[in-house]
Amino acid sequence: MSGPAAEALRARLAAAPTVGVIGLGYVGLPLAVAFAESGATVLGIDLDARRVAGVGAAQSFIEDVPTEALRAVVRAGRLSASDDYGALSHADAIVICVPTPLGKSKEPDISNIIAAADAVASVARAGQLVVLESTTYPGTTQEVLAPRLEARGLKAGTDIFLAFSPERIDPGNRDHTLRTIPKVVGGLTPTCAALATTLYRRITERVIVVSSPGAAEMVKLLENTFRSVNIALANEFAIMCRRLGISVWEVIGAAATKPFGFMPFYPGPGLGGHCLPSDPHYLSWRVRLAGYEPRFIAFADEVNRQMPTYVVQMVVDALNDRERALRGARVLALGVAYKANVADTRDAPALEIIDALVHKGARVAYHDPHVPSVSINGVTFDSVEWSPRDLGAYDVVLILTPHAGYDWATIRGTRRRASVAPRTSSASKRLLLAAVLASLRPRQWVKNLFVFAGLIFSQKLFTPLAGVALATFAVFCALSGAVYLLNDVADRETDRFHPRKRERPIAAGRLPAGMAVAAALVLVAAGLAASIAISPRLALVSLAYVTLMGAYSAWLKHLVIVDVIVVAAGFVLRAVAGALAIDVEISGWLLICTVLIALFFALGKRRHEVLTLAEGAARHRPILAEYSAGLLDQMIAVVTASTVTAYALYTMSPETVAKFDTHLLPATLPFVLYGIFRYLYLLYGCQMGGSPSELFLNDRPLLVDALLWMLSVVVLLYGPRVG
Fold this sequence. Notes:
By secondary structure, the chain is an alpha/beta fold. It is built from 28 helices and 13 strands.
């Protein structure tokens, strides 16, 4: 021990010290009672008058502190509470346990620490120990607390002693309590660490000393980040197992039998409480300042934050399987606390889930034996009386918090016995039909206009063959619609994390996957039958298109560069199909132009997805992880130049001039240039381009330009020869 002041303080801390505890919440009150039970005189400071009154009346407001224990130390005169920091001038040790939330932009909010530090500094004196327990980023103790104390003329480590000891309380845990959980301590100096160790040995069995306050601050962040990322992994596995028809609970249970190298974590509806949703952000913010981007933490946070939305979608899917709508459905939520067997609803995912279900029209009730009432978005809900025999009155029973009081065997048995007759009505049939039509994406049928290329450039637009081309267009509308249905079924889980695609009928749960597959098969059969009737060669191309697009949905879209080439090939097959249907040849130049312009649009769409989805891009479409904005910019530049060059050469080639008997086709080039430049402007300047088809239909200048190009081509190919 260094110096007589430190030795004297050590003796007081070991005997019968006066301890000040700032913040009497879930951390501070248990700590204050424990110190009081150890024989210390404890002064609790809190600006919440209700907490001060609760301590004065010896009525516990924290579940982990029995009223009997609080009453004993209050009546013995060893614990009192106040909102006056002045009394702390007599304390031997001051422990700061104030909340540390996140700001609106998920940046650390240590304003409570700063306020407490300023208050302590105003009454601090030589010979005191100050310990920070509030979770915070590494460096807070040394960079925020120490300067404020030293501004009073007290040298930290010599006159006043400073340490950090992270709170490790697990609310509701009866096996690991404040007294049995080892306490980590990091002092500003070895003397500071030794004094903090003396203090905490009064209330805990084991103290672990680390080299510095920063190391102790990092310990807490590691503990909770470790839990956060492993819970995210468990949640990801739950999604994958559901996709594959496997029980994630069975998988985790079996994996947990491995005696080494595995620690079981379990999926849930999301993270709640004060620590897990916020602590990793404190670490991320701090290391960003040091020049490192913690991507793994950010991805885990994204997975966990999406779980309430995923749970809502599971409810929608469950109802759809019984041909029922979410709107008007009766839903019973079991548990609203953020974890089992506690009453704490801070950041509980159950509240977000209930709010979303109510917003979508569900009739939601909840039961929680620990939470008699809860306010969600300004609406107060009361816990309903409930028993297993009442389950039949609900369309969905949603288990959000697995409190120990629930009879799971009875609940599971009720679920097996439940039998609900599906609802059928003309209204629901109309809704399903509307969902099917929306899933066919009629606005995307503009892509099928490529089947008219052969008709127009063979100069047969005003012949009976136009009817055949129109029928071919209808065939490809059916086939492409079927492809969209199957693709949406395959991607429904990842689409739910996309800001726009999650509204698609299948992803949103308005169209059951089985019904979508059935509709797709009918459309494929009808499309192929119609193509056979038109032309056997058209039928072969149609079959090739369906096969290629099926391979794209199942496999090829996961191959970098191949994915956009396959999309371009789909446009080429449309043009080839249109030519074969009317039995005309199509220019090789025209096919090259088709490939290039299709690549141009596909690459633009990829770039928009990469930038718009940002960190969530790979989650929605894994192949996007292989692309970067820089790479796509270079590819777009190559394809843009190639498209313009190919079209210009096509219009001026001797073959084209001889075929159409005109030298004026290059006059259409300005329309092509304007269209490409306009699209690039929308892509780069307006951050648009997620759906090229909708962009063409919604952007008036682009649409007018396309129509003028078409009109000029028709005039030059079908009008009188003037050059």
